[in-house]
User: Which sequence fits this backbone?
């Protein structure tokens, strides 16, 4: 478990001058990981793989796409009909965006449930939130490129969010974002350029994310620190094989959508070419933005919102602040959660509030897809209130009010005693006893 | 821990493991190839490009001695309505004088219409000689200004660095005055 082992002289020669092999060995092969990681720890590597899939298919699509208002829609149809396997590449890219968010949301929920954001992993968590923001910007701009009705009106609505900024700044800012007086060719061109750029920034932040991760190593389902080498196993082969198995399961689900329901998560209006004179009857963003969209629409009144105290803000600005605040608040999470216990397994109350947060988010997603009418407005407001209360009221109080269950002495203790806590699958057995 | 994995394995166990490695590796390779092919193939000419792969030309409008240039698959195609003198000259050249020996009959369907891809076989420039005032080279055909290749009235390379005669595309006469290239 220590150092690169090879007899290949060429590898030794290169590695001595550029230690690329020993670095990879250190981080992907020998890298000691807690022996009790369960399948919830698969989603980080899955997200990385989806990012690579998106970049490869995206580069190929960019080679066939024309970023001009007169040609964009037709060039996408050409990809679907005329380019060899263009339909496949586009459907992989389209559904890949959805699956990227599925994987990342599960990755985040894992972090929330097992307290992975707590010290000393606050920066790791914050880098993850930055990745989420970059992903959202990338996905939004990518959705504009096919230049369908939803592309155009989605772009119009989202860029207009910035017009909520008061003192005349907002309108000037929106004109600057557009490069004109409406969403038009300059907007499409810059969105294309940025949609190509941002994924590479994501790759950069992913490396920072991994760097921060490998500083202290992965958290684990027990949320306690490893006491020594007996609590860890080498990443390869134990977690490479586990990640490969998870990848197989993921690819089956992904392929099922790509080949059998490629447009299930899309919106049919985006197969109508953009028309600046006609707004579709019901604009909805892609599903992965729906909870945030619901929070935007939840603020229908001109009063103060919880975390800004007494300042009066109009409904438009309030909605925008709430929507962005719902993500920015995640940056503060490591300091809002006052409990020293990481894993929800030992936090009976937090566990229930965690699931309440999941329910509130799902409800918000559902409300986001509904028209802005009663009862959805009220339901959305209640769910929005809980979302913020969870982070701003529940988590700070819970650390003081909750009595956590006793923590095991070490990661291996419950395993070796047998019948301890339920454990992650393969890694819990003494690895090579049978051999 | 990991080291103990290989302890106690006899020759038989290793054979089985080798088989699993090979079988899994081969399966993985087939899978990777299956995924890679659509990605690579997407860069090949698409259906709309292939649909434009033939060009129809009315050659009846070309006066004797005149030449026109049409576009076929993004490339210039020279069509010259040759004079009797030019045809005679092209047919009369002894094979021994040619750098890339090819009789004139093999390069035309009807001797009066010479149809060639107008791209110098050296490095891809478009030779001069289509318009009335152009230099036609020392052999009365075409002259490539890039590196000085001279082509005769059959479009055959006679002098200069080009390795081959100008290419003759696949074409056919749909009727007396219409040809379809490609």
Assistant:
């Amino acid at each position: 478990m220590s150092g690169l082992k090879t007899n290949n002289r060429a590898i030794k020669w290169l590695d001595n001058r550029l230690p690329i092999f020993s670095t990879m060995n250190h981080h992907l092969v020998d890298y000691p990981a807690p022996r009790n990681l369960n399948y919830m720890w698969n989603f980080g590597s899955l997200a990385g793989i989806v990012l690579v899939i998106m970049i490869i298919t995206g580069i190929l699509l960019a080679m066939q796409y024309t970023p001009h208002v007169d040609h964009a829609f037709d060039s996408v149809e050409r990809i679907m009909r005329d380019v060899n396997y263009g339909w496949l590449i586009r459907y992989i890219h389209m559904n890949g965006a959805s699956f990227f968010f599925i994987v990342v949301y599960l990755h985040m929920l894992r972090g929330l449930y097992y307290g992975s954001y707590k010290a000393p992993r606050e920066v790791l968590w914050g880098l993850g939130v930055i990745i989420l923001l970059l992903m959202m910007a990338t996905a939004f701009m990518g959705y504009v490129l096919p230049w369908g009705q939803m592309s155009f009106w989605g772009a119009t609505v989202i860029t207009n969010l910035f017009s909520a900024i008061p003192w005349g700044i907002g309108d000037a800012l929106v004109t600057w974002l557009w490069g004109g007086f409406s969403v038009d060719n300059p907007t499409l061109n810059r969105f294309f350029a940025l949609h190509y750029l941002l994924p590479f920034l994501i790759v950069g932040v992913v490396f920072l994310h991994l760097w921060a991760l490998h500083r202290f190593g992965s958290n684990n389902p027990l949320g306690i620190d490893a006491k020594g080498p007996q609590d860890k196993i080498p990443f390869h082969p134990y977690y490479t094989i586990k990640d490969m198995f998870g990848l197989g399961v993921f690819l089956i689900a992904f392929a099922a959508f790509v080949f059998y329901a490629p447009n299930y998560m899309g919106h049919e209006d985006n197969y109508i070419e953009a028309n600046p004179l006609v707004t579709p009857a019901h604009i909805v963003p892609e599903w992965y933005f729906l909870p945030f969209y619901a929070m935007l629409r939840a603020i229908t009144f001109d009063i103060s919102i919880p975390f800004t105290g007494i300042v009066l803000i109009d409904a438009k600005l309030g909605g925008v602040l709430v929507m962005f605040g719902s993500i920015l608040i995640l940056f503060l999470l490591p300091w809002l959660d006052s409990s020293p216990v990481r894993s929800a397994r030992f936090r009976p109350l937090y566990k229930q509030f965690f699931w309440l947060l999941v329910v509130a988010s799902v409800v918000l997603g559902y409300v986001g897809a509904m028209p802005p009418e009663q009862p959805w407005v009220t339901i959305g407001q209640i769910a929005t209130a809980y979302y913020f209360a969870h982070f701003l009221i529940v988590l700070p109080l819970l650390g003081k009010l909750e009595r956590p269950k006793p923590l095991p002495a070490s990661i291996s203790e419950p395993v070796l005693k047998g019948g301890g806590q339920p454990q992650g699958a393969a890694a819990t057995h003494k690895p090579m006893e049978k051999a | 821990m990991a080291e103990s994995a290989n302890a106690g394995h006899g020759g038989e166990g290793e054979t089985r493991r080798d088989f699993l490695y090979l079988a899994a590796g081969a399966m993985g390779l087939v899978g990777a190839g299956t995924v890679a092919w659509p990605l690579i193939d997407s860069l090949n000419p698409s259906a709309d490009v292939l649909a434009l792969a033939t060009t129809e030309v009315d050659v009846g409008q070309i006066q004797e001695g005149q030449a026109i240039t049409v576009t076929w698959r993004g490339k210039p195609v020279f069509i010259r309505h040759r004079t009797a003198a030019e045809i005679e000259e092209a047919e009369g050249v002894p094979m021994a004088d040619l750098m890339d020996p090819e009789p004139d009959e093999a390069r035309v369907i009807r001797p009066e219409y010479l149809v060639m891809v107008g791209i110098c076989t050296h490095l891809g420039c478009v030779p001069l000689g289509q318009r009335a005032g152009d230099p036609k080279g020392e052999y009365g055909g075409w002259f490539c200004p890039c590196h000085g290749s001279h082509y005769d009235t059959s479009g055959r390379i006679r002098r200069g660095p080009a390795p081959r005669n100008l290419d003759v595309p696949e074409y056919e006469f749909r009727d007396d005055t219409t040809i379809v290239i490609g």
In short: The two ends of chain A are 18 Å apart (CA to CA). Chain A has two domains: 29-265, 284-400.
